[in-house]
Amino acid sequence: MKKLLLIGCCLLLFATCKRKAPVHPIDVNVIALQPIGPFDALYFVQGEVGAFFHKPVIIFPPIRMPSGALDTTKGERYSADSILRRPIPVTGDHLPVIVALTEKDIFTTVRDKDGAVKLPAYKYAVWGIFGLGDCPGMASVVSDFRLHTADTAQYHHRIRTIVLHELGHNFGLPHCPNPRCIMNDANEKIATIDKSSDDYCRSCRDQLGLP
Fold first, then answer.
1. Which residues are marked as active site?
2. Of 6, 63, 192, 211, which is least packed with CB atoms within 10 Å of its CB?
3. What three-state secondary structure class fits 166?
4. Residue range(s) defining the domain that contains residue 162
């Protein structure tokens, strides 16, 4: 039994890169999904991620939300940083890239270059997000709380886009200026996700070594 300590870095909506040891999809043997409580789209995400990266995608048993992650300042929101710091047991000889999935609303604290909470603090201390991830690194977390819609196809596009976006950050991709690329920054607008294509742009694919 091995343990992988999941360490998060702050981001706005998707992820802001914090450089660590390089990670590359070629070097990843398996991608793991870690549901936190129930997650209805779990098997959809498993199929889409596996088909996209041509990697085995395993599902860990559900876990509880980490103790102390809840903040009630703006309703019920859970700290994405706390989720990423939670040790998760991993079996086998190789540690996978792990995507934690939750239906709960998640947040991070946005800080300025000096490490202080960005102003106005009431807005950025508990900043609601879609996802959080290492860039590059071995872990990310995605919430579908802000993605729900009566249009199933649109929901599937949203959750797929965000999961692939976070995995792109795990593999070292920064935000991309191409408005159609999955790696484009959401800029606080879900409309950006809805306008995204189903793929990385050619430049981002080349950086990942994808055909």
1. 166
2. 211
3. helix
4. 2-175
User: Is 69 a domain residue?
Assistant: yes
Total of domains in the chain: 1
Q: Which amino acid is at 34?
A: Q
Instruction: Report the C-alpha gap between 108 and 102 in whole angstroms.
Output: 15
Tell me the CA end-to-end span of the chain in Å, nearest whole number: 35
pTM of full prediction above 0.70 = yes
| Interatomic CA distance for residues 162 and 14, integer angstroms | 7
Chain segment 40-56, per-residue pLDDT in tens: 999 999 999 999 999 99
Radius of gyration of the chain (CA): 16
* Residues 142-164 pLDDT 10s: 999 999 999 999 999 999 999 99
Residue 33's DSSP bridge partners are: 59, 99
* 42-53 and 152-170 helices, crossing angle to 10°: 50
CATH number of the domain that 171 lies in?
3.40.390.10
Inside any domain, residue 191? no
